[in-house]
Amino acid sequence: MTPETFEAVFRDTYERLTRYAVRRCASPQDAADVVADTYAVAWRKREKIPRGDEAVLWLYAVARRVLSQHRRSGRRDALLDAEMADLYAETPGVEMSVIGQTFRALPDGDRELLALVAWEGLGHDEIAVTLGITRNNVRVRLHRARRRFAKALAANGVPTSFTLEPLGETR
Amino acid sequence: MTDLLATLDPSRKGGDPGAPGARALLAHVMSTSAPVRRRRFLRPVLVAVAAGLVVTLTPPQFVTSYANAAVEIHLEGEQYVARVLDPFADHERFTEAFRAVGLDVRIRPLPVSPLSAGTSLGMMIGGTFDRPDEIGGEFAYGGVVLSADLEPKGCAPAAPGCAMIVRVPAGFPGSVDIRLGRPARPGEDYADYDKALGPGGPLHGVRLRHGAPVKEVRAEAERRGLRVTYQRIEIGPGGGLSFVDDTPGDQWTVWNAWQVREGVVRLLVTERRLSQNPFYNGSAPPPNL
């Protein structure tokens, strides 16, 4: 991959990758580290970056590993930190916080799956590529994650329309 | 049900790959080279072991001083002090010199206006540290502040006796990227965009601390033969600023000006007048606005 192609990948994916990091990091500094480290890995392994729409899925997978091993970096770029801080939404109101707390209390795997659907807007095929599992596995795990989330919400007094449908009918 | 989650999205929007911090990140990432493959070195060792020889592995030997046409490095107590002899030399010469004393320090040339040629635009320090020190707001390690400054302090880069001095603690385990200004080629964007209002800058003398109408600043810029572009300032919930291209009205307010490239400036504007300059929140020393 030429430096020009890498720059094009950076331009095409930066918006989505920064959102991915912001959604999973409590502080802008951590989000900046994850974005920086992810692109650093991507540059080192640029020959492996898939072409087209799959590039961003490949980067999500890298970012996920970076997140799991994350330690605050010694490098600080105040400009990038400030740009990252600007991407955070304001804290939602109280009525939303029960849902937020319930969501944060879910097992990591469930949270990641639901986030990939709700926030990154990925379909089953794309999630399968990102997580390196089969499409069928995505379907099963997502069904279970949804069920656990609905149960936890109900326990916290938030009813949902989620019913225990047979697997074949869920999205 | 995932609709419920959509309303909880912690991210308001995605980052702009064209923003200065993002561009600096891309440049930094692409300036790093791939790690050396180890396999080649491993094989002779394995062969030696198989042959029943005793192999002693000695740590790499570093010298404590080094000089080439670009830079001169020597050890002073706990720190390496490097005097840059030729800031525009091939940057590999710097890498090689620092490597000789066991340090990963690189010079990354960035295109700048004549105001910043030969000066440092800051350092990027990489690596993870258990206890990063901070001395006077600067990054330090083992009690030594990492720096790249002109000495004597504030001298003109081209003046005799004036040189950039880089200080790095001996044995520093991280990487250091020094962003060093080199004269921009015609049409190249300046990395020292924030020098427009300072001494020697294209809009030196224009006062923007309390804001000024677009009409006035534009007239002054055009009088000086500059092409003017505009970006509207957006202020995030945390006070962070972002900028979008816009065409302002005459009565909009200019709060800051950047030099984009030779002969081109960018005015940072808001439609309504704000109670204070968003680039200046009472910090000391105040920016040159």
What does this structure look like?
- The complex is a heterodimer of chains A (171) and B (289).
- Chain A has 171 residues and is mainly α.
- Chain A contains eight helices and no strands.
- Residues 164-171 of chain A have low confidence and may be disordered.
- Chain B starts with a helix and ends in a 19-residue tail after the last strand.
- In chain B, the strands form four sheets. Chain B has a five-stranded antiparallel sheet, with helices on one face.
- Chain B has helices at 2-6, 20-31, 39-50, 91-100, 214-223; strands spanning 65-67, 71-76, 79-84, 104-112, 120-126, 133-135, 138-141, 144-145, 147-151, 163-169, 175-183, 212-213, 227-235, 241-245, 253-261, 264-270.
- The relative contact order of chain B is 0.11.
- In chain B, β7 and β8 form a beta hairpin.
- Chain B is 17% helix and 32% strand.
- Classes of the chains: A mainly alpha (171), B alpha+beta (289).
- At the A-B interface, α1, α2, α4, α5 and α6 of A face α1, α2 and β5 of B.
Strand count, sense and barrel status of the largest sheet of chain B are:
5 strands, antiparallel
Detail the poorly predicted runs of chain A. 164-171
Helix content of chain A: 55-70%
Number of strands of chain B: 16
**N-to-C order of helices and strands of chain A:** HHHHHHHH
Keywords (chain A): Sigma factor, Transcription, Transcription regulation
Family (chain A): Belongs to the sigma-70 factor family. ECF subfamily.
GO molecular function, one term (chain A): DNA binding
Protein name (chain A): Sigma-70 family RNA polymerase sigma factor
